[in-house]
Design a protein that fits this description.
By secondary structure, this protein is an alpha/beta fold. The chain is 38% helix and 19% strand.
């Protein structure tokens, strides 16, 4: 990467701002421009019901730090007998902020820090521990089915619950100007989901007349 190009971090606001600060501290020019907004559920009754039954699950899998923060709105501590699966270091940090670490919980996460997704998470899970038992997956609305399908193929009873919802950010005049400036300066965009990429294309077409 060319050192003079701005790195645009597009994750939801809290994670984007944190990563942009870390990149700036390492000497890279960085800007946070979230392409997804994370919002509470309109109806959290199913989430609250699942959380109230945490003790009945062998493991809970969180697809993002946002899912962790949503769950901890309803509990003060994690039941130590329930294993946890997360995708990456951001989720580990989110757990730690709520007092959950390897010292008081069994946490599974991908060993390859360069690739953290459902596929690499599956490589480290103990299927024998989970077989014929219940696993709770906590995710955003309309999340991927890959992890749930892979666990069910191993004879595991999977229950998926939405913990938050995602939407395309609404841009005010300041954010539109930032978008146009970033598009004009040939920035490096860090995009981690197809939904975020789709939102960027829609924003670029709407506000800059760009397509493709």
């Amino acid at each position: 990467m060319h050192k003079d190009r701005i790195v645009v971090v597009t994750r939801p606001r809290a994670q984007a701002e944190n990563l942009a600060v870390r990149l700036a501290a390492s000497g890279r020019e960085a800007a946070a421009f979230p392409l997804l907004d994370i919002l509470p559920l309109d109806d959290s009754s199913q989430l609250q019901a699942a959380v109230s039954e945490l003790h009945s699950y062998a493991m809970a899998a969180f697809v993002s730090p946002n899912a962790i923060d949503a769950v901890f709105q309803f509990i003060s501590s994690w039941p130590s007998e329930v294993a946890i699966a997360v995708m990456g270091e951001g989720s580990r940090h989110a757990l730690a902020e709520h007092g959950v670490t390897d010292s008081n919980a069994r946490i599974f996460s991908p060993l390859d820090k360069e690739r953290t997704d459902s596929e690499t998470l599956l490589r480290v899970l103990d299927f024998s521990m989970l077989k014929e038992r219940r696993v709770l997956i906590l995710r955003g609305e309309d999340g991927r089915e890959f992890l749930a399908d892979a666990l069910r193929a191993q004879g595991i009873d999977v229950h998926q619950v939405a913990a938050y919802r995602r939407c395309k950010p609404q841009l005010d005049s300041a954010r539109i100007k930032q978008l146009l400036d970033l598009l004009a300066c040939d920035a490096l965009w860090l995009i981690t989901s197809s939904e975020a990429l789709r939102n960027l294309r829609e924003m670029a077409f709407e506000h800059a007349g760009a397509d493709g």
